[in-house]
């Protein structure tokens, strides 16, 4: 069992939990289900953040939240905003997003911080084009994580086919679900090996 586990969750509005009337998001629900007694967690999600934004601010925010004697961990989740088209182009090209992910994972390993990556949730209002870009990105993220020995939780396809996620997002702002959708995302993370990772797996 992990001793003095400190986990920083960094990402976008899905990480932040925007849209959840219970203000727990998937991060809060995962933490509630975590079978580790001594855990300190930090939600560093910011709305509209891309992989570029996360890469730029990651270490200045994460490092002050680590302790030398603790089991320091990092959960990364981004990509949905990268794949949004603005002014005729995606906000961040897929290759650049993957480079950002690889660099973050390499630096995390160098610092001795165990990492886990949660894939990009789908954005209903983005339509089929956005979903196709995310599905391909998630596949490529899987390969980047595998190359660095980091667990990857693939959520994109499952949530795109989940009626609760789709219905709640459609009834809201077209992107963010309510409590039920965030609960489904939390279930995917927990089912994707969260407990063993939090308990000491890398």
User: From the coordinates shown, what is the CATH architecture?
Assistant: 3-Layer(aba) Sandwich
Bin the strand percentage: 15-25%
Radius of gyration: 16 Å
Helix content: 40-55%
**Total separate domains:** 1
CATH homologous superfamily classification: SGNH hydrolase
What is the CATH domain class?
Alpha Beta
Provide the succession of SSEs: EHHEHEEEHEHEHHH
Biggest beta-sheet profile: 5 strands, parallel
List the helices and strands and how they pair.
Blueprint: E1 5-11, H1 13-16, H2 25-32, E2 39-45, H3 51-62, E3 71-77, E4 85-86, E5 89-90, H4 94-110, E6 114-118, H5 127-147, E7 152-153, H6 156-160, H7 163-171, H8 179-198
Parallel strand pairs: 1-2, 1-3, 3-6, 6-7
Antiparallel strand pairs: 4-5
Helix pairs in contact: 2-8, 3-4, 4-5, 7-8
In short:
The chain has 202 residues and is an alpha/beta fold.
Task: Kindly describe this structure.
- This protein has 202 residues and is an alpha/beta fold.
- It has one domain: 3-Layer(aba) Sandwich (Rossmann fold).
- Helix content is 48%, strand content 16%.
- It has eight helices and seven strands, in the order E-H-H-E-H-E-E-E-H-E-H-E-H-H-H.
- A five-stranded parallel β-sheet has the order 2-1-3-6-7, with helices on both faces.
- Helix 2 (25-32) crosses helix 8 (179-198), helix 3 (51-62) runs parallel beside helix 4 and helix 4 (94-110) packs parallel to helix 5.
- The longest helix is centred in the last third of the chain and has 21 residues, at 127-147.
- The protein is globular, with a radius of gyration of 16 Å.
